[in-house]
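sry for the spam today, last one i promise. struct tokens for design, 637 residues
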């Protein structure tokens, strides 16, 4: 169907304002409570070697939760683009997506539980007009080191009483252990790496109706359905984290110097609650894509489980792909590029399952354009040549994989039984997403050696987990104090080399572990021992001055203009995060000059708040790396 015709048709059936309204209301509501709106960080973090994607609103704010001063103050609000690849296998039900927008507000050592719970309840009830009788809440039940959150229980009781609802623990307010009511990027306290902040949280669930809780017993500890049950009756729509702890190297939790609030609520889910429809794919953030897929396949969305699941996967994955491509990513075999490729391939396999005669790459392009329309003016300029050009990247990748898929399907058809080994071969030779080979085989009526398949599948999962440690979790591979310290020292070292040896030196690569840092720089000859001694002293002097480390977001051109360092060959988005060391107090970041800071780099962090934390800096060795590039190793003691 022609693009223009489809757009006209959609205008009649979709209310395009719901999500935009909710986004605007949320930001406005918290602005009225003294919050400053900050822009969404990119989903592909800037120059941050420790994590692949931004998976929550708090991720770009970690340094500020740990105590560094944020230039916009102590009350912040935003809508953050987020991607969680660990949810990839969950996509297909009514509420899981890999890409979502997280509405977030933060108190950086400012207000705490009473204000947060009162405001969020007020927002849900008075702004979104959700019926409070359909809201249920959870709080942390306590463990050996952190007490039960009785304060939040008391606040919730009062808030519900205020709207005429008697709220009892076990009826409206539920307590859960850390598995459910503790939040950090790595999960429960035991899983947090040293340095990581976290804390107990309090969630709000929307009840879509008892008829959805169609099971006798939930998988959890209660006999009947309850807010955290996964049956689909309840949907978590709001999460207030009381981020007041930090994991220590000895495994204990230490109170942070400031008590923070980190709030996150999925925009898609809030839209679903407002519409009183538990399917996020029916909100205006997805519905036009579903209509498009219906047109392509001739199938009705929501009628049969298999087609419905396929449509959800295609819509979610291609939306995520559209965002990644617009942040400069290309499908590839490594890191973020690999995740992008996997999303596209999974979507193509689902298109195949969905059937339909049209071209898959044309369909992909239409979904891409529809994503542009949904977020037009918010994240994309849907009709701009730049946006449309980038869609070609998706189209080409689909065309490439479609060819391979057809050959692979013929190969698959040659086997009567699909053993784990056959499936693995298909993955290796044709890039068949592993888990989908199984589905394709069953569909064709082929026998599947389930046990062996599962065994191979687990082995493969284990392998990719090891290969991408910390990456698919959206958490940090290593966010330890030692690595963070060395990361900041790395910035000091580059600035010192430029200052004392040659201002034209550029970074060509880096690698930081907990033991040492390694930097590659453009420089034609060996550094002399004197140069290395001077640089070492200069870095140690900067450490001695206890300079502040500050993160500022700004347009890329501005960052370039003020001399912020970037890594050669790296693609950066239009808005970048710049880490300054020693930014002169009171300097307006918009008007900064080279004399106003010790170092400035395009970077995603993490960093220490003050250089005094680093200790003593020593250069271990200096050697040739490749033509015109020198490599320096250094450590901190
Ligand atoms: N960090 C919490 C979450 O992602 C709240 O923002 O749910």
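last one done:
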């Amino acid at each position: 169907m022609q693009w223009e015709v489809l757009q006209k048709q959609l205008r009649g059936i979709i209310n395009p304002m719901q999500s935009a309204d909710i986004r605007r209301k949320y930001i406005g509501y918290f602005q009225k409570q003294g919050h400053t709106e900050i822009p969404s960080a990119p989903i592909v973090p800037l120059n941050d070697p420790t994590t692949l994607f931004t998976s929550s609103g708090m991720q770009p704010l970690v340094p500020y939760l740990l105590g560094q001063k944020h230039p916009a103050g102590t009350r912040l609000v935003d809508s953050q683009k987020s991607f969680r690849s660990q949810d990839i296998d969950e996509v297909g039900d009514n509420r899981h997506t890999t890409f979502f927008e997280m509405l977030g507000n933060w108190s950086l050592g400012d207000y705490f539980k009473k204000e947060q719970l009162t405001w969020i309840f007020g927002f849900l009830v008075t702004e979104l007009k959700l019926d409070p009788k359909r809201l249920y809440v959870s709080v942390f039940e306590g463990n050996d080191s952190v007490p039960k959150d009785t304060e939040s229980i008391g606040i919730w009781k009062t808030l519900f009483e205020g709207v005429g609802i008697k709220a009892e623990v076990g009826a409206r307010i539920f307590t859960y252990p850390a598995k459910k009511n503790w939040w950090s990027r790595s999960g429960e306290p035991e899983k947090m790496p040293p340095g990581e902040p976290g804390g107990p949280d309090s969630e709000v669930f929307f009840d879509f109706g008892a008829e959805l809780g169609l099971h006798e017993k939930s998988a959890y500890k209660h006999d009947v359905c309850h807010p955290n049950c996964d049956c689909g009756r309840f949907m978590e729509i709001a999460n207030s984290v009381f981020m007041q702890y930090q994991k220590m190297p000895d495994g204990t939790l230490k109170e942070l110097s400031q008590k923070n609030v980190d709030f996150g609520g999925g925009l898609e889910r809030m839209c679903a609650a407002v519409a009183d429809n538990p399917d996020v794919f029916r909100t205006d953030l997805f519905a036009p894509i579903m209509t498009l897929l219906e047109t392509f396949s001739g199938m009705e969305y929501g009628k049969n489980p298999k087609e419905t699941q396929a449509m959800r996967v295609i819509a979610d994955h291609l939306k995520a792909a559209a965002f990644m491509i617009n942040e400069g990513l290309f499908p590839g075999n490594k890191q973020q590029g690999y995740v992008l490729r996997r999303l596209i391939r999974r979507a193509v396999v689902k298109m195949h399952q969905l059937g339909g005669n049209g071209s898959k790459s044309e369909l992909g392009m239409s979904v891409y354009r529809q994503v542009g329309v949904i977020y037009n003016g918010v994240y994309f300029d849907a009709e701009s040549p730049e946006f449309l050009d980038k869609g070609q990247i998706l189209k080409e990748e689909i065309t490439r994989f479609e060819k391979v898929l057809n050959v692979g399907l013929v190969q698959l058809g040659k086997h009567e039984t699909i053993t784990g080994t056959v499936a693995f071969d298909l993955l290796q030779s044709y890039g068949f997403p592993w888990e989908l080979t199984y589905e394709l085989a069953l569909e064709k009526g082929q026998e599947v050696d389930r046990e062996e398949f599962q065994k191979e599948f687990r082995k493969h999962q284990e392998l990719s987990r090891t290969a991408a440690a910390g990456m698919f979790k959206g958490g940090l591979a290593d966010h330890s104090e030692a690595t963070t310290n060395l990361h900041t020292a790395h910035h000091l070292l580059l600035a010192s080399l430029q200052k004392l040896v040659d201002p034209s030196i550029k970074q060509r690569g880096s690698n930081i572990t907990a033991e040492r840092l390694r930097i590659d720089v453009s420089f034609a000859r060996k550094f002399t021992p004197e140069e290395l001694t001077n640089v070492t002293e200069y870095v140690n002097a900067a450490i001695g001055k206890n300079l502040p480390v500050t993160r500022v977001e700004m347009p890329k051109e501005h960052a370039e203009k003020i001399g912020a360092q970037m890594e050669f060959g790296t693609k950066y988005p239009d808005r970048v995060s710049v880490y300054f060391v020693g930014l002169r107090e009171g300097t307006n970041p918009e008007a900064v000059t080279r004399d106003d800071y010790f170092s400035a780099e395009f970077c995603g962090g993490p960093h220490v708040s003050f250089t005094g934390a680093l200790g003593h800096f020593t250069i271990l060795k200096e050697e040739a790396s490749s033509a015109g590039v020198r490599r320096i190793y250094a450590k901190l003691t």
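The chain has four domains: 1-14+284-412, 17-275, 415-469, 474-636. ok im logging off now
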